[in-house]
Specification:
The structure is a single chain. About 40% of the residues lie in helices and about 10% in strands. The chain has helices at about 1-15, 40-65, 80-95, 105-115, 120-125, 150-165, 205-220, 240, 245-255, 265-270, 280-295, 295-310, 310-315, 335-345, 375-380, 390, 420-435, 445-455, 465-470, 475-485, 550-555, 580-585; strands at about 230-235, 270-275, 325, 330-335, 355-360, 360-365, 375, 395-400, 405-410, 445, 475, 505-515, 535-545, 590-595. A 6-stranded mixed sheet has the order 7-8-9-12-13-14, with helices on both faces. Mean pLDDT is about 80; it is low at about 15-35, about 65-90, about 180-190, about 520-530 and about 555-570.
Amino acid sequence: MADQEDDFQMALRMSMQNSPPEPKRSKPRDADSPAEESSEVKTRRLQQELMASAAEKRMLYARASSPSPPSPAPAASPVSVSRLDLEANVVMKDRELGAELSVEEAKQLFSMVFGAEVTKGILAQWSNQGIRFSPDPETSMGLVQHEGGPCGVLAAIQALVLKYLLFYPDGLGKGAPNMHHNLGSRTLSSSHCVASTNFSSLSEDAKARALLRSMGEILFSCGSNKRAVVATLSVIGDDVTRFGGSKDEVIAKSLEGLSIESAADLHKVLRVKTYTTEESVLQGLESVIPVFRSRMGALLFLISALLSRGLDLIQADRDDPSLPLVTAPFGHASQEIVNLLLSGQAVPNVFDGNMDLGGGMSLKGISRTVEVGFLTLLESLNFCKVGHHLKCPRWPIWVVGSESHYTVLFAPDTNVQDENELEGRESQIRKAFDAQDQSGGGGFISVEGFHQVLRETDVKVPSEKVDLLCSTGFIVWSEFWQVILDLDKTMGGLKDSTGLMGKKVFDLYHFNGIAKSDLNGSQVNSGGETPVQRPRLTKLRVSVPPRWTHEEYMTDVSVSSSANEFKEISKPEPPQHAPLVDCIRTRWPRAVCNWVGDAPSIV
């Protein structure tokens, strides 16, 4: 016992000196003995150092928490003060980084995200993607993706970033106002805005603040606007303050050799901190934003969103909680991840509300209008039906989903969201029809539901056509819609002899953040052989014909009946086609698109 006390006292003295004193020995050192320590001596020395470190931290903690002022201490050497200050910084850093997850929480989180049979390749994809802006002036507003998999997380953040850059440029000052100021009060018809698309003029400060606001808004939305959880890494420690170089370089150095391959790895390095106000979460994010720029950034943000919502609520949102959120075999973000970041709930479907299947079973969809929306190629292939909440968000910005990738579509003019007479009538009829559709977007309703639609929309279909539509016992949308198109406006239909109802021309922009080859041939490396890898921004001119077929539209030379409507005084250019056009047509049926250069890519 006396030896242990002596060891402890010596360990304390060792920690307060420039170099460790000679270890206590039971016999003199043999001059001919080898220079290397024996295993017994090495073990003893390590124990002493650990005991000294623990004692110092307890002393510091006791001094910091003591209500009475400390008694005068003898003057300490500069070395000992420096040592104590360093240890104090470590203690403070531990507190600032937040708390550990419990072992069980770490297991639940890892299993929920990756499942039990995740491959090292998928884990590598999600551990090597930071949240960083493109260095190219033309795409400087965009987040760059280098790894497959986390594109769903990046695209959702990108959509919110564009909201702030396009429509709140004056709010990106150094203050931290309410993130949701005036959002709920905006109406599409009363607040027209045309944003600048001169992205090369954006300052680094404006982009950084747009990113902070976007991340904070998403996390606070996941926490039901009551809280946000920010996840970071313990391995960062106080390296940023101790070492020279930029913060990004220091953090990259700290992450060397770090891999997340199990729940145990997650438990070892993850630290989380909870915030209960929007201002505090912005400040918390700003303090650790270099960590989110690092290669672990996308994974940390996903974890932050899941913990902000709460792991139990995440599982309750889902239709099948047994499946991992990152899908096999390619490690893509599931629709549940995208919906969580867009709507605050990890529901798996894109239709509005819940769908009752009977027998106490239901499928969960989007419960409210969102800030930025979602379109998908799968709807054009009749695999799903995107509801009004996602298709018509508050701002004209959409995450676009394909079979294997997520990109972003946006308009600088908020008028593209306004409905003209034709679109308003079409939306009214379709909404009434969908309300009676219990097929999960299959596009058919019962006879009783059909009569309810006619009453709600004041459509006066001739009796012989009603009998024909109802002859099979159910009504198909495509057949009903053809009747509406042939029915005159005076009877509630959409037949218009003037050809002017529904004219619209506008611009859309599409951003694909994954580094793809620039195939135009203008950007090559010094050897002139391989195209440069870079994100792409494509401008599209979109014309929505007033007629119901493209042939009718091409023969129609139109003029605008009002100065407030979009004008088209010449025949449109021949249409171009790409899978993105099919996505656009799920929002604007019959849209005709044109662009310059290579076709926009959604893969």
